[in-house]
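thought: user wants a sequence for this fold. calling inverse folding tool.
action: design(structure=
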């Protein structure tokens, strides 16, 4: 290991994890006896940890801290014979860490802005696509305990994409993990289209993206299930065409 005249100058390398195992052990020994280095390292970590948690998380390169901070420190550095006392160097660390924070915020901010613009453009294009109702189905009650139950189902198309849009009313309130489940039936085979819950008035809604081959169904049924995890009907039918 090369001789180090001033171990305090190694704080930055220690912070970046660029030391060898031997150098790290030696600096740990120095750090335990140097309050100034302890404070400096604490400030660097505080700035780094202060990055906003609400921004989109990105996988930042490990060398990013070094690539950003090293040029700043090189500009601030002076020849050894004219190097200022240690208290002045602490301000350099603060400026460098602050610059890193600004850069990372800007990096993640630009990424988020780019993604936002992309999403907004896609949404804007969808706004100009007309939606069309291809078919409408009326649902009638099948459970005598829910005589007021009713529902409507619309098959819609927009921009080449089809959806089933379901709306119900008058269904009984659910207990515990219960859920209402929607099925498309073709030749006795049932396709699971998802589950929904209802409000205090028995109102419920559900949308399901449907493929062209799924469109050729015979009937629609809604069952009351013990939970939302079933792939086959386990409860009684309460609504259907």
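)
observation: tool returned 241 residues.
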């Amino acid at each position: 290991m090369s001789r180090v005249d001033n171990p305090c100058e190694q704080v930055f390398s220690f912070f970046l994890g660029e030391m060898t195992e031997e150098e790290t052990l030696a600096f740990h020994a120095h750090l335990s006896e140097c309050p100034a280095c302890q404070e400096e390292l604490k400030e660097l970590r505080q700035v780094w940890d202060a990055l906003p948690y609400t921004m989109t998380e990105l996988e930042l390169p490990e060398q990013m801290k070094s690539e950003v901070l090293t040029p700043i420190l090189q500009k601030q550095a002076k020849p050894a014979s004219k190097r200022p006392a240690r208290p002045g160097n602490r301000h350099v660390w603060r400026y460098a860490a602050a610059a890193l924070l600004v850069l990372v915020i800007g990096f993640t901010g630009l990424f988020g802005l780019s993604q936002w613009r992309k999403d907004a453009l896609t949404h804007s294009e969808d706004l100009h696509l007309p939606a069309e109702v291809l078919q409408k189905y009326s649902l009638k009650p099948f459970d005598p305990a829910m005589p007021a139950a009713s529902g409507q189902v619309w098959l819609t198309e927009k921009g080449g994409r089809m959806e089933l849009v379901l709306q119900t009313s008058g269904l009984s309130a659910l207990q515990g993990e219960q859920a209402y489940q929607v099925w498309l039936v073709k030749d006795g085979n049932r396709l699971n289209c998802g589950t929904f819950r209802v409000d205090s008035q028995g109102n419920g809604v559900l949308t399901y993206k449907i493929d062209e081959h799924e469109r050729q169904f015979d009937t629609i049924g809604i069952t009351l299930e013990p939970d939302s995890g079933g792939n086959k009907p386990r409860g009684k039918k309460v609504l259907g065409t």
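thought: summarizing for user.
answer: Here is the designed sequence. The chain has two domains: 7-125, 131-240.
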